[in-house]
Amino acid sequence: MSIFFTSMWPYLLQLDPNAKLSFFGIVLASFSVGQAIGSPIIGYWSEKSRKFKLPIATGILIGFGCGNLSALRAYVSACSTEQDRNKAISYSFGSFSSGMLSGPILQSIFAMTFGEHTYLKLLDAYTTPAFFLSSAFSITVILVFYFFDDDSFAGVISETDESKVELPQFDKLPAFLCIFLWFIIQLVFVEQESLSTVLTIAMYDWTSNQAIIYNGYIETLSCFITVSTYVVLGSTRIGEINKRFNILVGLGLFASYFIVLLPWPVYSGKLDYNPNVTDGACTYSWCPDLPQVPLPLYLFVYIICNGIAFPFLTNAIGTLFSQILGPKHQGTMQGVYAFFGSLARILAPLMCTTLFDVSGYTWISVIILSENYPNAN
What we know:
Blueprint: H1 8-15, H2 21-49, H3 53-57, H4 69-78, H5 85-114, H6 128-147, H7 159-164, H8 172-204, H9 208-235, H10 243-261, H11 295-325, H12 331-359, H13 362-376
InterPro entries: MFS, MFS_Domain-Containing_Protein, MFS_trans_sf, Tet-R_TetA/multi-R_MdtG-like
GO cellular component, one term: lysosomal membrane
Membrane topology: Multi-pass membrane protein
């Protein structure tokens, strides 16, 4: 779905030039409603059926089907031993991030190829990614049905042994903390995902087409750092370091992004306030009051800090959560885990777009920082 991140706001303005950021937030949140509903249902389905092929294949249904991530996480836990869990989760999340990496690249290619032109009255920089993604989903479903094996599990007790051994209940407090941290991570990630195009248009006077292309480059570089970090975490001893330490490192790096966005007096640049244009300037009432964050500094925290923070957090929290649940089928609890992530993806666009429209990026940064630092203690 990262193929749509940078182009959704310009496309909405093309459809409705009078669209407000608050409505854009509703559009973004609506996608995650289906995911929030689907996550616990698909997770429960995979646990009770002890099969993963059909639950994973539901991913072809945009929205509800994206709840198949709960089944994917449960499958990774079921197919890995506790000793290999860190590596399995690192590589699975790394594979997921590889898809996130390819999305902005493809969107930039489509934007450069089509520009403002439309071909066959149907294909342009905004619609071509949707056709491409639909084809990719169809191919993926075929591959799942013909090549996916969900008959053997190394990380769970067999049904025969399960009838002989009574597994203890998992510790609910650590599990809740993992779910809460995942909620916070998704709040941060979706804030960046939903506002990157809007923010850079306002801050650096990029046109919509420039914002799509340049943010595609930025997202691609950040995702490349993310994938590389997952590989390092999965193949070296860094991933085996105390998980609390990794979580603190991740939270600190995430916080650096929002610290940089605060209106520090050392920032000398001013925003180009022009309420009379529709593209390529800062048109909001708060523009005269906020300084411009230096572009090199913004690129550094977005690409490097965020690129490293996300895998440090998701790997540590995902591994801990799976180990806390124990050697059992985890579909239901992984569904709960994914549900709260989806809930964050519903709330974040509504909150961030409304705040950005009214007050810019300052209060968003303050709120996110107030959520991060208490969790780091």
